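task queued by scheduler; priority normal; single chain, no ligands, no partner chains; default sampling; output format set to structure tokens
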Amino acid sequence: MQFCAMENFDWQPTATPGAEKYEVWRGGENAYFAAFRVKAGTAFRPHAHPGWEHLTVLSGRWQMGDKELGPGDVAITAPGEEHEECALEDSVVMISIGNNDIPG
């Protein structure tokens, strides 16, 4: 069993300016569970993942395609499905990538 408190996360910069990441768990190159702390206006260009992406908004407002998400909202993207994202407010989101056999 593993526990971690967000107040103790060791936030690391990402390749996207305005976004930081803390990896809670990594199971391989394309399988991980991570928190992202993202400044308002930060956008992630269209991209796809080889496995499922499960995104949960913890705080702030988030845009995925034409959908606006708030705290507690969840978005699930299928393997290979191209999507783009943007933080509408300073936000924290949890993202799980991988698990090709789990449909959602």
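post-processing summary
- The mean pLDDT is 91.
- The chain has one domain: 19-98.
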